[in-house]
Amino acid sequence: MSTPAVSTPRTEFFQKLKRVCVPLNQLAVRSQDKTADAKEILQHVESLIQLWSTQAAQDDSILDDRLADYVFVPLSQVLRDRDQYPMRVVEGIICLLRELIQHGWKVKTSAALFRQLLILLSFTIGGVPGQARKKDIPEETIAEAFKTLGALITSVDPSRLERSDTPGEDSIPALGHSVTVMIDAVTEDVPSQIQLEAVACLRAVFTSAQDNPVLAQFLPGTVSGLSKRLSPPLEKQSQKRVLVVCLEALQLVLVNVLGDIKVRGLLRQIETEKDPGEEPKVESDAESTAVELTPSWLKATAAQVKIALSAVLKLRSHESEEIQRALYRLCITLLDECHASLADCQSILVETALMLQEDEAPQSRLETSLQDLVSIYPELSSSIKSALYSWVTGLPRMMQSSNEKTKQLAIRSILRGSKLAAAVHMDSSILDDSLADSLRDSIITLMKASKPPKVIDDVGAIDLSQSTALIKSGNTELATYNPVILDSEGQKTTRNELSTLISQIGSPDLQVKLATSMLSYVRDSEEPTTQIASFWLAFELLKSTYSQSADLDELFDFSSLGETQLQDQAFQELYDFSTSILVSHSDSIESPWQLEALALEVTAFFSTRLKLDFRPELIDVLYPVTTFLGSSEPQLRRHAITTLNILATSCGYDSVSELIVDNADYMLNSVSLRLNTFDISPASTRVLTMMIRLTGPKLVPFLDDTVQAIFAALDNYHGYPVFVESLFSVLSEIVTQGVKSDLLLPSSTTTKPTIDHKKKSYPPQGIPAILSTVTKHLARAQQSKSEAEQPFQPATPHEPWGPPKSTPKTKSFLEELDSPSSPSENTEPPTAEEKEEKELQTPTYNLLTKILTLTQHHLTSPTPTLRKSLLDLISTVTPALSPSENSFLPLVNLIWPVLITRLHDAEPFVAISAANALEELCKAAGDFMGSRFATVWREKQQGLKGWVGRVKGDAFNTRSNTRSNTRGAGRGLIGNAGGSNRRGSGIMIPSSSPSPSSSVAKGGLFSLDFGSATTTTPGEGMKMVSSSSYSAPTAALGRFSQPTQLWEAAVSLLAAIVTYVKVGDEMFDEILELVVDVLPRYPELKEAMEVVNGDAVWLGLYQRGLVELNVQAPVMEGFRFASLPVR
């Protein structure tokens, strides 16, 4: 009886393999058409891969070399004819071989099979040496072959990687060819995935092989290939991950071959200085290809490695942090593991490690740092000093490079080297002395090479007349300065690196020493660039010392130490120089804006340190800082705003406006001093204007001396129109703020005295009022008659006038000649009215009076805009001065002659302003203007009547030139100057009554709407009629044309004259004739003229057909009145 076979997992798996391997083997052996059977073969291969990988994932303990040999049998049949199969089949077999190697043969791979597989894979990747490829190999196939090759080398028994004296069993030649194929893949232009797999294979070779002579044989080619990939130009064509794995592979190769432990015997021989000819060989081989490891070989190899490392270490300027970290680890590892064998490479390795060490990155305790190596190997200190000195002296030359990355790396290297030197307590006076000069020369080089940016971050021109131009002190956007040097965007990183170097280099004592050495260049240098560079460097160094000592100052008091005193003395000297720069600023003398900007920064920094104690310094610096707001340099304007913002915050003010208002007296003194010495600039006047606007009316009473200085400057510089206008802008601002002042009136006066000169219509009087008027007239006539009959007897005073006087001491005749009479002796006491008027005259009032008095002399200026601004000034100040008539009316009489002539100015906008000024005078002076207007009304050439007529004619002619005159029945367009009532052919009749909004300012002469409608006016018995026979002249500009606007101003002036000034009957009639035809469109003028003589106005309108008589018959019970014809 037979016993059934026991089923095990291995047996079951074998049966699965058998079901696939047998058909595959039969198909490979008996196939006649390889191409046709390739698809089926590929399916079997993929089935085997699936079976093997699945079992390896589940339980790989049943997989052994015998199963692998069983599977390899059909595969070998296919590989014999691999050139006849598609590469997809070969790729599948290579993948299956990798599974067999990793989970089947493992370390039990025989020497013959190992060599066969090495050759197979190497020929698959690189082709047969000396023969051309029959077909192209896909990139995927090459990558899979490298993976399989790496798995083969890693899993094989290390003894297979050693030389064998047995003929036919030496695998080193085959391995050498494989290494060559790997190196070629690294250096050639192939996909990165293939390069990564090739490098992995190289790592496997140098990791698995234990025979140092064998590795030494592969060392030159491997180092050469890796360094070729890691150095220009190939490194620029490689991906970052390729470069990283190549650096790691190079580190592994050098350590495993040239590590101090590996060559300790050779190092010992070198130390004992034995004769190289008598040195025993560490390893010898009969073949010519064997490498003899001798001290001479070590020295020669180290020299060649140094050349290769010199090219590889250029990667320190690479921008990738991963590559820099890998290169840093390479340097640290070689300095540690190959310290003696690669002693000649220490200088370049230390230099590169200094450049690449990370300051802020946390260091693992398991990783060796450069500082640890310096502690272990003290001889590295000299290399660090040498590298640091070389960097410091060569920094100006490096700053000439066009590559910003190179500059940044050089600066960063000095910073890291100095930190390491400080950490290991390496002091060098030579290095400290050369550091200051090197930094200054480097900054000068950068400044000369930098170009000003095309686009400047400008806050715009600051309008100092606007209080909104200044910002609050809490604004953080303008609380930071823009860079003064290296301000282009491309140099931003370089500037930051340089600032970091200056702030962190050395100890505070060293920084103070360096800053002090720069002060001599700041004071004495005549080269602007050198002075700016020294100024900036000294300031940055001192700022750094204060920031480093700020935390310690809160805990300890170092005031008694000389170091703190030196620090304060150096900064005080720097601040004094900055103050002199600010005070000596002048628009006429050009100076580098960077120097002035740095002076502003120093001033602001000093204020942040002193806080409220800085307020006394505002006496000297506030006005100069404010003048920079009007600078032509946008960078200086922004610096000035930032400085004011910082000053306000430091001194405890809520805003810059509050800062200026609280210190207005200091600024006013500075301005007055400059005005008195004629040291004036447009920026000065703008600052003064801004200050007056910000402080408001309360500053005006104290500007008396300033106004005198301004007019003195006007007398000296009246030939400079722009400057004169800037001075008058200050006066205009004084007037604008002065009229708002409550100080125009004495404190005892609660309300402003008002004088209303507006004419009011007489109320209707009945019979009693008429009788009362007649009675008074008869009484005055009787009194005059009785006084005329009596003889004239002048009244004689019976008591002294005025208060009693003390009896003066009797003087001799000579004494009376020498001493003039005192006012108390000859001056009569003021009357009550004069006292009241004098009480109304405050300092502000007197100042405005002085400005108005002196302004008249400049109304004849050749600059039209100045004439207009002065006329507007008169319009502004007139209402404020009018309450004190005894002082105001003489001023009116004084400015009248020059003011009335401005109506005939060649510039229409000046004439309009003159009309507006006269209108304000009419409102303020009233009847006082009557005789003056009457005098100029009928003058032949400069007469007011003729001017109004010409203005009216120009206004109509401007529009009537663009269209034909419309003729029809009606009356004349303009009333007859002679007063006749003859009828004309052209008639203009407004069609509708003016709306409440159609005033002089809105409706205008040429905004009329002419039609055929008839509306009733507010006046009783009057009706407006219209005529379709007239069309209003029109044009593109309409009421915005200059003649039209001038006519509007003339109408407004006539309305003011009639409303506030007493005019004669004849002048009134002539005014009525001038405006009667357009009177319905100007209700204010019509109402004013009706107040004076309503009947004349109605009659004038009626005569021109602008109203019609509407008489209604009376109604009475029992009577019927007949209608009367109206003509």
From TrEMBL:
Residue ranges occupied by any TTI1 C-terminal TPR domain in the UniProt entry: 775-934
Q: Which residues form the signal peptide?
A: none
SUPFAM superfamilies per UniProt: ARM repeat
Q: Where is this region: Disordered?
A: 745-766, 778-841, 958-1000
Q: Where is the composition biased (Gly residues)?
A: 969-978
Quote the Gene3D superfamilies the UniProt record gives: Leucine-rich Repeat Variant
- A GO CC annotation given for this chain: cytoplasm
Looking at the UniProt entry, the stretches that span the membrane are: none
What InterPro entries is this protein classified in?
A: ARM-like (IPR011989), ARM-type_fold (IPR016024), TELO2-interacting_protein_1 (IPR052587), TPR_TTI1_C (IPR057567), TPR_TTI1_N (IPR057566), Tti1 (IPR016441), TTI1_rpt (IPR049362)
Record field: compositional bias (Low complexity): 819-830, 979-999
Q: Which PANTHER family match?
A: TEL2 INTERACTING PROTEIN 1 TTI1 FAMILY MEMBER, TELO2-INTERACTING PROTEIN 1 HOMOLOG
What protein am I looking at?
Armadillo-type protein
